[in-house]
Specification:
The strands form five sheets. The protein has a four-stranded antiparallel beta sheet. Strands 5-6-7-8 form a four-stranded antiparallel beta sheet. The model has no long low-confidence stretch (mean pLDDT about 90). With about 375 residues, the chain is α+β, with helices and mostly antiparallel strands.
Length: about 375
């Protein structure tokens, strides 16, 4: 109860209270944090992950945080130590830079062009630049300026399939970074064109709102059958990694067809055209079908999405074919006394047709 009183925005994610997720607050600002403990009540072997903003604030405190994590008696003690370190770092970050520092930044922005700047923090510590690719898609580059600038590379964030890590020297300018960013965008044109074709002409189950960094798509093949593809950003016209999802008696023919014809993949054709020809099926689109044609919601929670997860277990009985979230099915089977568990797999009966079904313990 004391932990809840001091950190009300950090809540347990499981019954054992070994996983906490939420926010820690400092000076009215919320920082996202996740703590995973090996066992309840002890910080030995615990791990933490946090938002990019908090990670940057604590970038020079890795060793100190690791030591505090191991020495703290419990989660509350560690969070108090964390808050103390955050307060100290916030004060250090607030130190004003000399006039030459700001003059250089202003001159670089002038050279870059104010029209490319869509945001600038009052203290000049963060800039957001915008750039357009060949298809006029706009992309944002977030630049976090460190006190050591220009001797240290700024922290760069962009929604790209691979990290944007341009070569940096003390003579590199914001204009150089912007030009390299635009050059990088041109390298992804074929990738984004292929994925956009899939988004337009196939029924994409996941993600619902893909971002430029997302190279995966889960597309409908038929009733209770879907295909998860992951396109290689460096070689977008080659055969992507493919995982068929659904009951074996439904997806088996699709998987066998692709395996038998994989050598016929033609890089001069688009990913979507290749997949349709090699699998031997016309992939349904939103224009020709409706959501009612496909059963995609979990049969236990009656939702398609459970956090980041989507239904990925299907009953093998051809008369049922009901899909489930792995986590939902695992918890349902675990609550049934007739189910049996071996290591991380639980064996039981389908909630709908009572045919045998298995589920793995959620990671």
């Amino acid at each position: 109860m004391e932990l809840l009183h001091k950190f009300p925005l950090l809540v347990p994610q499981n019954i054992d209270k070994t996983i906490y997720q939420g926010y820690v607050t400092l000076q009215g600002k919320h920082y996202q944090l996740r703590v995973v403990m090996v066992a309840p009540g002890t910080m030995k072997g615990a791990t933490i992950s946090c938002s990019w903003e908090l990670k940057q604030l604590l970038r020079d405190c890795t060793n100190t945080l690791t030591q505090r994590l191991e020495e703290s008696e419990n989660l509350e003690a560690f969070l108090m130590e964390l808050q103390h370190i955050m307060t100290k770092k916030t004060k250090q970050e607030g130190v004003q830079q000399p006039a030459e520092y700001y003059n250089r930044l202003l001159n670089e922005i002038e050279s870059l062009g104010w029209e490319k700047l869509v945001y600038i923090a009052p203290d000049f510590c963060e800039l957001h630049l915008v750039a357009s690719d060949a298809r006029n898609r706009q992309h944002l580059l977030k630049i976090r300026i460190t006190p050591e600038y220009p001797h240290r590379c700024p922290d760069l964030r962009a929604d790209l399939p691979l990290p944007f890590e341009p070569k940096w020297t003390a003579h590199t300018t914001l204009r150089d970074v912007s030009q390299r960013f635009e050059t990088t965008l041109s390298c992804y044109q074929e990738l984004w064109d292929s994925l956009e074709e899939i988004d337009r002409h196939a029924w994409v189950l996941d993600p619902e709102n893909p971002t430029p960094s997302c190279v995966s798509r889960r597309i409908v093949l038929g009733k209770n059958a879907s295909l998860q593809i992951s396109v290689n950003p460096a070689y977008p016209r080659l055969l992507p990694a493919c995982v068929f999802l659904g009951a074996e008696h439904v997806i088996g023919k699709y998987r066998d067809s692709l395996q038998n014809t994989a050598e016929l993949w033609n890089p001069s054709r688009s990913v979507l055209v290749n997949l349709q020809q090699l699998i031997g099926v016309e992939i349904p689109s939103r224009m020709s079908t409706s959501k009612a044609d496909f059963t995609v919601e979990c049969g236990i929670c009656y939702a398609y999405r459970l956090g980041p997860a989507t239904p990925d277990v299907t009953c093998e009985d051809s008369r049922c074919n009901q899909p489930f979230h792995q986590e939902c099915l695992y918890e349902w089977l675990r609550s049934n006394p007739a189910s049996l568990q071996s290591f991380n797999t639980i064996f039981g009966e389908c909630p709908y047709c009572s045919q045998p079904i298995t589920a793995k313990m959620p990671a």
